[in-house]
Amino acid sequence: MSAFRFKRFARKSYSIFNSMHKAVTIGVLSGCTLVSAHAAYAEPEERMVAETSLDTISPTELDEVVVTASRVGMPLNLAAKQVTIVTKQEIERSPVRSIEDLLNHVAGVDILQRGPHGVQADISLRGGSFDQTAILLNGINLTSPHTGHYSFDIPVNLSDIERIEIVKGPSSQVYGASAFSGGINIITKKDKETNAFAKLEGGMNGLLGAEARGATRMGRSVHTLSAGYKRSDGYIRNSDYGITNLHWKSHFDVEGSTIDIQAGLNDKAYGANTFYSAAYPDQYDDTRAVFASLRGETVG
Q1: Distance of alpha carbon 268 from alpha carbon 120, whole angstroms
Q2: How many structural domains comprise the chain?
Q3: 75 and 177 housed in the same domain
Q4: Checking CA distances to 106, which of 7, 57, 254, 273 falls within 20 to 30 Å?
Q5: How far apart are CA 173 and CA 137, in angstroms?
């Protein structure tokens, strides 16, 4: 055993010993013998090397997501704005009954619903008002020019949607003056072959819902027609509603160019019990929105 005695201390942390005129004795016990003894009786170390061939891991190729947060489509990782994508798989797994219910689960999106099943809702992004959020369908701005209360009167069913792009932040340069706080672009399914879909549901208080969609391919063009109807007698007085949606879309491939034509009808009639004022509970809304669009794009 070795001993070391210190009487003078230069570091500030030991200044208390210096002021007390004390000596500190430190003993050190050598551990060489213990280390040697441990090494003598230690068993030889076994090493196992596991080799994994890269050929045993099947490569997975992910689909590239192209968003429309600018005037031209670009990959999501190149988008300059903050974009949230609600994918087709997320839509199918979500236990929701309307598009408004689906968006209510997205961070940064504020939904104020005045009725069930998408009867009427105000939508805002990042603290903006419902008049500062643009609503688009396949890139076509359907925001109501009268009031943001009716901006979500769009003629599509939940089963028609391929994905939803939510652009947060000022986007007026891309989506128009109504996109001061952002925009929500709803992309419908792009059918490539002939197919059909139907859905029927019912419940208490006269609840009835029906959806149908069919697509047919004719040469170098694909035509899709979807229809939906929802109604209910309401759970309280003057809360009944009836909603009808019709949407037609055609896609043409013409000598290196594409042409997209779509048209839609949304017809709503619903009791607005206490929507605007509890003093007048017998208000009633009856709205109808019709639109048509034509868009062409050159490929290459």
Answers
A1: 9
A2: 3
A3: yes
A4: 273
A5: 17
